[in-house]
Amino acid sequence: MKKILDCFEYLKRYQIDLFESICILLECFILKQNHQIPSLLQKAQRRQKIYESYLSALNQYVQATPPNPHLNLAKVLRVVQETPLQNLGLFFDLITQKKTNNKLFFYTTPLEVSILLNALADLQEGESLYNPCFGLGSLFLQIPKGVSIYGEELDERFVKIASLICKLNQTEATLMCNDVLKQPAFKDIDGFLQFDKIICNPPLHSHLGTNYIKEDERFRGFVSKNYPELVFFFHALVHLKTRGVFILRKGIFKNLESKFQEKLLGRLECIIDLPKNIFPYQNHDFCIVIVGKKTDKILYIDASKKHFYQKDGRYHRLTHIEEIVDLYSQRKLTCYSKTLNEIDEMFENSQSEEGVRLSQIAQIFKGKRVYGCSKDEKIEFFEIGSSDFESLGFSNHFDHLRLEGQIQKVMEYALKPYDILISWRGSFPKVTILSPKLSHLCVANMGVIVVRAQDPQNALGIYTYLFSSVGYQKLCEICTDCLEIKKLKNFVLPSNLSRHISYFGEIEKLSSKLRSIQDEITHLKDLI
């Protein structure tokens, strides 16, 4: 494996585009598959130029990607000739999932997860498989022969790489370069084409245009900025004939929209929790969702336990794949699996293991309008909105001074030191904490939610956790245009909040530096 990896690094030095390097290497494997490499190497051994012969031989099978003329083709061909075709799956896993500096991990699925997805789909000879976002198509290396593959992707380079993979795997493929959200490719006058199986690991970072989605019959107006993968999920369902296997974020099931519930009603066969940290640079909790035509109860398999993964460098690697497949296919009930009547049952145990609900250690309420009626009297107070929130650490300076209001309400909803404030609107909430030196009478406006912890230590722990990447991402997951009090009350905090408190001092140091930089910027603007 080292030789082919070194060969890829050598190719990268000569090709401007990383995807071109992958294409050229795969095209060399096409020549190997068709027994064309030995004759080219014989010519090279006689010190004859092989560039034109290489292109001519390759164009018999695919449209060749011209390599850099200065590339030592014989060197590449020699390594490819020595590398078994069955090593391609591991090769792709190494260059995309392990060598993360290539920045390819968003376009492929880890090898073990790909193997599991294909095993769960249980593809049979003569069946059709559809993937609406196949990326580089590495998953197709696991598809058994005799299966017809259909798919769509936005990038022509991805389509070419995936097509080469299918040719090497000797599977029939119809892969289209198309934006599935604007115009589905597999639709005729009779409606959406139906495929026996669907496998889909949708992108998490799609920038979705919502105007055309709102009116589309596939989505029925459903748009989620927090979960763009759901749009691909809904799209795939209109093509589904027998079984669909999807990778989704587990947080989706904590905040089920009614339209999402309708889509899943009676069709959700199984949810498989995946181990944490198996996808590079992803802090989310992921699960595999299996959708069929009709089912009464949901099988839940907890494959996030230590039994199902082992440490592999910086990340975890999925293990005991056959056991997971057996649990699903036989619908076995074990210490790792159970049946569910409702999806909420999936979280009953996990919540107590992870920590405590926010409502257990804090009072939560929404800001109120305390002025603007006949009962107003003279009273000075600051009305705090999200524009008053400091970017880091304590907030203590506010702009909106009110001179009149309902005194009783102002005093009732007056904020206190260490109150945590969260913006109510938006998918990416702002968060701040009030200074212990709060010297003004302050009231949160209606666009702010107040979290009042039982004591200052808990307040610092909650704020610092929400500041962290993991905590903030989980907070965003429960925000759909606005933050519901009910969801925030059920927000699960880690049991070791005290560990987070120790970082608050660093946050305050950075806050001080940030204010100093902002003052310097203001001073510079005044000088110009």
Describe the fold and architecture.
The structure is a single chain. This protein has 528 residues and is α/β, with parallel strands linked by helices. The protein has three domains: 2-83; 89-341, Vaccinia Virus protein VP39 (Rossmann fold, 3-Layer(aba) Sandwich), CATH 3.40.50.150; 360-515, DNA methylase specificity domains (Adenine-n6-DNA-methyltransferase TaqI, Chain A, domain 2). It is 37% helix and 21% strand. The protein is built from 21 helices and 25 strands. The strands form seven sheets. A nine-stranded mixed sheet has the order 3-2-1-6-7-9-8-10-13, sandwiched between helices. Helix 1 packs across helix 2 (18-33) and helix 17 packs across helix 18 (469-477). The longest helix is centred in the C-terminal third of the chain and has 24 residues, at 504-527. The chain is elongated and about 95 Å long. It starts with a helix and ends with a helix. The model has no long low-confidence stretch (mean pLDDT 88).
Secondary structure layout:
Elements: H1 2-14, H2 18-33, H3 37-45, H4 51-58, H5 73-82, H6 88-98, H7 111-121, E1 128-131, E2 148-153, H8 156-168, E3 173-177, E4 187-188, E5 191-192, E6 195-200, H9 211-214, H10 229-237, E7 240-249, H11 251-254, H12 258-264, E8 268-273, E9 286-291, E10 298-302, E11 309-312, E12 315-318, H13 321-330, E13 337-340, H14 348-354, E14 355-357, H15 358-361, E15 362-366, E16 377-384, E17 394-395, E18 401-405, H16 407-412, E19 420-423, E20 431-434, E21 442-444, E22 448-453, H17 456-467, H18 469-477, E23 479-480, E24 482-483, H19 485-489, E25 492-494, H20 497-501, H21 504-527
Parallel strand pairs: 1-2, 1-6, 2-3, 6-7, 8-10, 16-21, 17-20
Antiparallel strand pairs: 4-5, 7-9, 8-9, 10-13, 11-12, 14-25, 15-22, 16-18, 19-20, 19-22, 23-24
Helix pairs in contact: 1-2, 1-5, 2-5, 2-8, 3-5, 7-13, 17-18
